[in-house]
Amino acid sequence: MTDQEILAGLGEIIEEIAGVPADEVTPSKSFADDLDIDSLSMVEIAVAAQDKFGVEIPDDQLKDLVTVQDVINFVAKNAGSTA
Amino acid sequence: MSLDREAVVVTGLGATTPLGGDVASTWAAMLAGQSGVRRITEPWAEQLPVRIAAFAAVDPVEVVGRVQARRMDRCEQFALVAAREAWADAGAPEVDPERLGVSVTTGIGGIGSTLAAYDMLNEKGWQRISPYTVPMLMPNGAAGWISMELGAHAGAHCMVSACASGAEAIGYAIDMIRSGRADVVLAGGTEAAIMPLNIGAFAVMRAMSTRNDEPERASRPFDKARDGFVLGEGAGMLVLESASHARERGATVYAIAAGAGYSSDAYHIAHPAPDGAGVAAAIGRALADAKVDPAQVTHVNAHATSTPEGDPLEAQALARALGPAVDGVIVTSTKSMTGHLLGGAGAIESVAAILSLRNQVAPPTINLEDLDDDVPIEVATEPRPLSKRGSEPMAVLNNAFGFGGHNVSLVFVAA
Predict the structure, then answer these.
(1) Domain annotation covers residue B415
(2) Shared-domain flag, residues B281 and B326
């Protein structure tokens, strides 16, 4: 899975859950500050990401995923390990 | 304490009902005597003895938007739709946020979300439940969402009393303004309970109509052939405002929200007390609170749900509470058209009662073909003009009663 594929998948998830247009989901954006996504929606996004990418995001790591790039990095690093 | 109580007026109306997605379409359908009841075509109804209901005419998801809707129970969506309409209707007034309150209720709460989350829990585990499940199932969710929508900081409340909830919420809002806690309060009720569990649960009480072959004729309050209520869904909302606040901003006033009366039967958890004393007491207290003489009352939007037990009991209590003045009062039950909105009922029926007062016409009770012999009141079977009786302003009542023995009566007076 390339970073670009993860970003595209993440964009779809975020558009579905939070209503942010997928093309606005760019790597440098902060979920809370730029995309206005609250902690409850982040939980939904994490579960959807797990389903889509086969990567589990534990709660203690979820809180450290501040930007879209953070999630891309996390998924890229852990892809295939928990599916 | 001042003896001059702050008068409360109605300056905005909102509704989304089985008859229409807003107040204008709902009111037009009421005057036209249209039924909102239809056959339930979903497969889940096949196992049930009741296969009819009054679904909302407009899907609230289309109005509130998909993203916000997925965080809200359907009853919260209805509430938000009706609240937005009422607020816009009131002219979206500039109000000090600390003086703006919310009193919005439901009889059942987010039952659809509760059941869906429980299915998800069992099928896919707790992690797949929406993180918004709790705010979707809690009965005060609608009040919370509306307070956020309006930026209301004076307090957001949810008075729950089953099918009396919507009327009680309006009564509580009147109190908020009278007691000086708020200048403006968005008040009303909502329900979205057309679910297999609810229908089964009401059906097992033998409370619902099983006239499945004639959906539009099933809700027939006061008629000899009535056999139970028909479940409806939707919401009704009022903007209530202190008279001085409304005057200062030059608001259009629909009516004076003149008073509320309450009683509790303390008799049975689901049956009304057979002597109707509680109902009569609530009506009497509402008139006293409003300082309205029974002879001013021209119209009553009755609770009358189309159950064999409840309708004559209410009619007799009304006759007793109003005394000889009941002659000339035009009574109607708009549930004949909307079905029973449970916690939304007192709210949409207050909207109807206020429009009856303002437009001086009572909507009909449809399907009333043969008046029950035990109903000693005049029930409209077609739109009936209303006119002032005597020199005092015209008054109308809305009644709402709920399981638990809750009785609420509201009085609205011409502005």
Answers:
(1) no
(2) yes
